Amino acid sequence: MCPLGLGREAAEESLRLGRSAIGPITSFDPAGLPVGIAGEVKGFDPVEFVKPRKNLKVMARDSQLGVAASVLACRDAGIAAGVVTPERFGVVLGADSIGSTLATSEPSYRECLVDGGFRFERWANEGAAAAFPLNFLKVLPNMIASHISIAHDARGPNNTMHHGELSSLQALSEATRVIQRGAADVMLAGGASSQMNPFDWVRHCLISKLSPSREPPHLVLKPFDLRRSGQVHSEGATVLVLERLEHALSRGAVPIAKITGQATAFAGDVPCRLSRESLVRAMTGALDDAGVRPFDVGHVNANGLSTINDDPVEAGAIRDVLGNVPTIAPKSYFGNLGAATGTTEILATLLAIREGTVPITLNYEQPDPACPVNVVAREPLEGRPRTALVLNATGAGQATALVLSEPN
Predict the structure, then answer these.
(1) Sign of the dihedral defined by the CA atoms of residues 200, 348, 213, 23, in that order
(2) pLDDT averaged over the chain?
(3) What is the domain range of residue 110?
């Protein structure tokens, strides 16, 4: 459930074709805002995935997308009712802050208007009384994982990661550890985020380093390119099925890839920027955990924000650890999905591991000397080792890296 399409096959087709999902915002009227483009999930009807339908009353769009992604993941993996013992079936989901929509907030705001002015002292009583009674259940970040567990009768370990763009990679990491600890046989792990409403976009336009480009939307994102101008925000949800190998083989499942190494690091050396130190430590730690040497890595799935100051920091860290390894930046297709970023980007790596072809990075035409990475561009790359390092980072100085390889 991402801007590339509804489901794995649709997303993979966009990656094969090099098709961008960035376009004009249609979720609301962006008139008056300096940025009017995004990566939106099109053609999504939650009624197809959320059962019973009445549950939609207490589900934000983030939860709707998350549940839908989990349903598609289970279908794809052959996880039907009764396949997994409920107490051995868990969920770890990455989530962002979930804001109220204008429609939900309007009644409370109207109750605080007096003679055309907003009276804050009315908010706690008159404003609160006009609010939808169950709205609080819609905006709790952990509700996404809760709704997914209810939908699949997954009664095992349940957790939520709330660390910005790191959230879904950290969810994968934690889900892996849960299985390794013997606490579950199957885990649903990933992330869901939808911040496509005016409240969120005012904030994004103020602090999120969005691109001001007036180019055609599909050309705006240029990770590591000399002409890059900023990032684009998007929405989506991607959930992966992680399974104990013996359990998967016992039911005849065919694994796509395995997670062999993982690491997270923090270094607050530069406020509001990516940290080269934490990126290096996360990559080195993941390689060590996997027992993989740098020259065994077939490609790096980079964070690749397309921002002026962050891309050189990441590129330098990749060069420090992995030299001239081929690098891809999936955000060039669909933008920054917040908490859904990592698992959505992994779709490109899973495609490469399964088919042996590394997808291209879109719009990379003019190399930037400040970004010394070997970007895969123009033509897909074949013949690389089917081991990859996936990397995400935040401006708070955190970084997470995972090593994935073919299951063999």
Answers:
(1) negative
(2) 92
(3) 102-135
